[in-house]
Amino acid sequence: MSTKPYALEIRRLRTVFPGPTGPLSIVDDVTLGVRPGEMLAVVGESGSGKSMTFLSALGLVSAPGRVESGQVLVGGRDLVKLSAAELQAIRGQSISMIFQDPLSGLNPVFTVGQQITEVLRAHRRTGRAEARREAIRLLERVQIPDAHRRLDDYPHQFSGGMRQRVLTAMAIAHSPQVLIADEPTTALDVTVQAQVLELLDTLRREAGMAIVLITHDMGIVARHADRVAVMYAGRVVEEGAVTDVFAQPRHPYTLSLLRSIPQLDAPVGAELMAIRGQPPLPGTVRQGCPFEARCYLGAGRPACREGRPELAPAAGPAHLSACHFAETLHVQEAIA
Amino acid sequence: MAAEPEPVALPAPQRRLAPMLAHSGLVTGAVILVLLALVALLAPWLAPNSPDKTDLMRAFAAPSWAFPLGTDQFGRCLLSRLIWGARVSLEVAVAVVALSLSIGTVLGALAGYLGGVVERVFTGLNDVLLAFPGFLLALAIVAARGSSLESVVLAVSIAYVPRVAVVMRAVVLTIKPRAFIEASHAIGMSDLRILLRHVIPNAFPPVIVVATVSAATAILAEAGLSFLGLGVQPPTATWGNIIADGQTSIVEHPFISIAAGLCIAVTVIALNLLGDGLRDTLDPQMRRQTGLKAL
Amino acid sequence: MNAVPDAGTPLLKVSNLVKTFGQGNALLSRGRSVRAVDGVSFSLNAGETLGLVGETGSGKSTLGRLVLKLLEPSSGTIEFAGTDITALKGRQARALRARMQMVFQDPYGSLDPRMTIRDLIREPMVVQGCGGDEITARVEATMRQVGIDPRLGSRYPHEFSGGQRQRIGIARALVLDPKLLILDEPVSALDVSIQAQILNLLREIQRRTGIAYLFIAHDLAVVRHVSHRVAVMYLGRIAEMAPGRLLYDSPRHPYTKSLLSAVPVPDPVKERAKQRIVLHGEIGSAASMPTGCSFHPRCFRARLVAGQPGVPVESCGGAILPSACIHAVPAIATPHGEQVVACHFAHFSDAVEAPRRLERLPETA
After folding, report:
1. Residue B182: closest C-alpha in chain C
2. For residue range A231-251, what is the model confidence (pLDDT) as tens digits?
3. Which residue of C has its CA nearest to A256?
4. From C365, which residue of chain A is nearest by alpha-carbon distance?
């Protein structure tokens, strides 16, 4: 287990939105961390809060939502406490984000070169010629061929995968310590997806960047991530090394999720273990475990109904789970 | 069984009314208009005097119990004239909205849905009509037909049909590519049926907003035309006529014109508030519902 | 139209179907037309599920709409229950709806937001002119069949979750008791845990009613789970078609192999041990299709074969490729058979053993 200090550490973050009967916690007391050179995958479904957690970390939550409490530590500074101007200086410099839809992330009326140089000059005093050279270097780094010519092309002249690489180039322009990728490949074909994720892997290895990969695809997690955090209803329910979590999940949600995914190598015609019901609407769970109603293990149990499980070590100090019965889970367990 | 009935963890059935009642602008506008409508409908009983009864001895009388707002230069009760004037304004507004909406929505929907040659012809003709300033068009029609309530209604309606139609066409163009229209084709519905049962009902919210604006314009147009002497002829009481009548004595007795002007202003503001409120609450309702789930 | 087909006739038989967009519309395509579907043939039997997989530009969604006659084919034939329906138009085409239906991808957009779900599910029956009592009973039964409580009938679509709305969409498609259901990415927009519910539901329905599915999706694992046979499409043509297990265990077309290699499996141990085939470049646009085999610019097998002695080769776009791949469209011997591979070198043994990792040169096609 690495003992390097965290590149990004989120402690007890809570983001609330006003609701009809009081504030709703979209991000409900979340603690996460990612180290340099490591890729942390954050997995969850709708309403899990996985995107909102990192939007909150970057101060990108729009009113009426707001960060209510918690800390977000990057390079020793707490982002929650910074002013808007200070946050703006940090975004793009120490910590960057790329989003799901590469088409809307780029302005269609400017060339790619103009947009990259804009990012470069936003945080550094660079002359135009120098910025242009740097932009070419960045495009080459994200493996766009013929970079000096493509610099003057418009976004619509690139394919989806290329656009995502351009956005990645813009995000790494200032060599941030942390890169957050929010579902970067969901809108892309599977063959292109592999290329983009390989690129992120390369960046991680070569530059020692800490990468947070937000996704709903467990396959991507298995292939690319070092550690994984599983989120449900605004909370982290399990966290650990990918090999550990997949080999022996310590939370019924993780286990059920893995069981409900069709596998390429499962026997044809096998029944999928579906999780009954649906994810709760944000803020509707008051006490007890948010997964209780759908849990094969805990549905109806008083312990699960009343007591909110805290995230605690379940199988070694690096494998955490928020479940009252974490230690008793067994991978062979049948689902009701 | 693999698929069990879904447990109903939904909030109570969302009612369309709730967000509307919460919108202060909408409520204000609606209340004012309802009051106006009541006043207009109950005019025969509300007005303290006859609006046409002249009494030159009482010209320019100060407000009193018999004449709550005083009298004009012919000794007619101002309040009564304003109340009966409301009737005219309401008639004009309702007639114009009914006429322009019924014709405009059909034309616009057909153009937007059918596309091709139909749409091109329609757009061409529509653009020609839209190029005329509405008021000028109204003047031309009144000049041709002579001044009367019917002329005013017809004039404003004709001026407004192209405006409603163009909005309707634009909205239909946004509805046409939506998945549920394709789904309707998939179950075997004919184009006509799809147009009537799916396209037009979904196109209504923006059109209703245009309707409130056209009502406001109708009232203003009537006032303007009557003021110029081209609308409803005196001695019938309309707000426009009252302003015109008060014009000659505007320096010594400004209140007459001001009172009628205020009535028009309040009504138009109320209509605008209603229109804005409807626009805010009708369509975004869908977006707000799904927006929460997207979190 | 209503003749009972004999036992040997497939429920659906598509032959050389072609759909070209953009012809005669100078504004749209600047003179170039797009062949979204380029000569597709297959058969589907009653009670069977044929999965149609492909990435963007594969033409799978267009194919689904052609079968349902939402689009008119440019050429080719479609036979349904033994009858040629290719030329049907208007009212006759609409009457087909009683026997084949579609489930759409977008659970949020495919239901009219202004209608109650009971009205939405009733609508197909009303359109086909069924009687009132029959409608009520059938609607209720169908709602139960998909797991929606009939008491919720008077609610509106926006009051339901994505998964529930998809169930409503399925109910709407099933209410007329069709023999064929075309599903266009029915679970792509749903959460993973809800996907499983819907997939199980679809299988349950097929078990009980013997309905046939044409299941269109981009997710290989999902398709594999529900299909008896799977067809892989690339740029408007079928690259390979085979019974499910065969396709996934021993794929014969290089595109199928690449696709399978690119799909990450939720098992870290297996994933990290996997050999990965990296494709050259990206999917070309259907508007400027390569000549011959449409996959040749990206094909790893073509490059391997070109290195073999005795194969006529040419230079093409910076690579050496077999002439056959560049100029000739691979022929399919038995288009309506169980197994189909569209490759000149279908029996070539790639790199002797497992596909080896090739040099990464992301040249754009």
Report:
1. C110
2. 999 999 999 999 999 999 999
3. C193
4. A159
Task: Tell me the C-alpha distance between C69 and C339, whole Å.
Answer: 26
The sign of the dihedral angle between the CA atoms of C24, C29, C32, C34 is negative
Q: Which of A223, A218, A288 is nearest to A39 (CA)?
A: A223
Give the integer Cα–Cα distance in Å for C118 and C143. 9
- Answer yes or no: do A191 and C279 touch at CB < 8 A: yes
What is the predicted ipTM? 0.82
- Are the beta carbons of A322 and A310 closer than 8 angstroms? yes
Kindly identify which residue of chain B lies nearest to residue C164, measuring between CA atoms.
B6
Q: pLDDT value at position B9?
A: 42
Contacts of A280 (CB under 8 A, 6+ apart): A47, A233, A290, A293, B9
Tell me the two tokens of residue C157.
Answer: 């679509």
Residue A305: pLDDT band with limits 50, 70, 90: confident
Answer whether C343's CB lies under 8 Å from C237's CB: no
Tens of pLDDT, residues A100-132: 877 778 888 889 999 998 888 888 888 888 899
Per-window interface: B 273-292 vs A, CB < 8 A: 292
The residues of chain C scoring below 70 in pLDDT are 1-7, 23-32, 278, 280-287, 351-365
Model pTM score: 0.81
Those of residues 200-229 in B touching chain C at CB distance below 8 A are 201-202
Helices (H), B12-133: 17-22, 24-41, 43-46, 78-114, 116-131
Which of chain A's residues have a Cβ under 8 Å away from the Cβ of C200? 271-272, 274
Question: E-strand spans in A75-205?
Answer: 77-78, 95-98, 178-182
Mean pLDDT for chain C? Answer: 84
Distance CA C18, CA C40 (A): 7
Contact C147 B189 (CB under 8 A): no
> C249 at the B interface (CB within 8 A)?
no
Low-confidence ranges of chain B (pLDDT < 50): 1-13, 285-295
Q: Chain A residues with CB inside 8 Å of C295's CB?
A: none
Please tell me which of the candidates A191, A262, A275 has its beta carbon nearest to residue C258.
Answer: A191
Task: State the pLDDT at residue A331.
Answer: 59
Shortest Cα distance, chain B CAs vs residue A277, angstroms: 6
Q: Under a CB-based contact definition with an 8 Å cutoff, are residues B162 and B126 in contact?
A: yes
Tell me the C-alpha to C-alpha distance, in Å, between residue C301 and each of B61, C222, C269, C339. 104, 27, 27, 20
